[in-house]
Each structure stands twice: as C-alpha cells, then as structure tokens.
Amino acid sequence: MVDTQLQFSSAYHPQTDGQIEVVNRLLGNLLRSLVGEHVKSWDLKLCQAEFAHNHAVNRSTGFSPFQVVYATIPKGPLNLIPLPNRSKVHVGDFVWAILTKDQYPAREYNKLSARKIRSVEVIEKINPNTYRLKLPSHIRTTDVFNVKHLIPYTGDSSDDDDLRANSLRPWENDAVEEAVSRYLEKNRF
C-alpha cells in the first residue's frame, strides 16, 4: 500500500525494531513516574500506564491510539467531575473570585501568591459577562471581574477544611484544581 515491509524481530531482541524500543522506553518512564518510591508495586500501576499511553495524543497523527482504533476519545476519571455552572451568578450571591496575573498591583505578583478570594458578594451586574464585587479592604485590585473568573460559593462548613482551595491563605495550594480545570478546558467534547 505505502511500500512498507514487515520485518520480524525475536521476542528477546527488541533492538531490531526501533519503534518497540521507543515504546518500551516511554512505558518504562511512565511506570517509573507512577510508582515513585514504591517500586515493588509496579504491577498495580499497569492499568493506569496503559490508559495513559492509549489516551495520549500522538504529535505526528494528532490522535491517541484509542482514537485511531475506536474512532472515539476515551472517558477518563476527570470527565466524571461535575463542572461548576459559572453562568448562574446573580446580584447578592457569594462567589469565589479568581485573580489573574494582570489584576495584581505592580511588583506584588508572585507565582506563589494566593489566587482565590473566598466568599465575595456580587453587588452589581454590569453586563452578562462582567460583575462588580464587594472585595475585602486588603485586596488592592479592581472590583470588576469577568464571569469566567467567578465560581459560585456554596458556603458549607466543609469549605473551611478544604486544603486544596487557595483562598488568600498562604498555606493552601490550588494546583490540583488548576490542573483539573486545564484538563477539562482542553478536553471538552
């Protein structure tokens, strides 16, 4: 068809097939990163490694191996997470406000700076995409936010113990939420 030739290699000499070497190295690195310090548990991580490999998009084809075979994108654990409905923000509601780099005053932005303001009241709807918030006095930035930077605040007591939510407290970290958001934005169907 495309002038390809099938060349057989023995099971114990994969060096004769360059593509197998590449895949073996890739899977070895993937397993190494999954098992971490628990080297003897590598067999428990094989299903995760297989899913990750089959879900990864190939640069040359632009498709994942799963997509090539089944003509669909596999659903992963992150697809099961309910997305917050960011469009339902009303005057009087309380929201999380996410600060972007450009909203920090000059020389105050730091990569480790807190990026969320918790329990902020919406005081005015300027247009369907823009809202004015009642910010705490220690926050020195504009009080106008785009709706994409607002998340409805539920206000239950579990929020106080949630260490993944970075709400302008230096000991908290929102790296997990950011990774999930980036993944969901990238893989919207």
Automatic annotation (TrEMBL):
Gene3D superfamilies: Ribonuclease H-like superfamily/Ribonuclease H. It comes from the Eukaryota. Residues 1-73 form the Integrase catalytic domain. Pfam families: SH3_Tf2-1. One of its GO terms (molecular function) is nucleic acid binding. GO terms for biological process: DNA integration. InterPro entries: Integrase_cat-core (IPR001584), RNaseH-like_sf (IPR012337), RNaseH_sf (IPR036397), SH3_Tf2-1 (IPR056924). SUPFAM superfamilies: Ribonuclease H-like. PANTHER family: RNA-DIRECTED DNA POLYMERASE (PTHR35046:SF18), ZINC KNUCKLE (CCHC-TYPE) FAMILY PROTEIN (PTHR35046). This is Integrase catalytic domain-containing protein. It comes from Punica granatum.
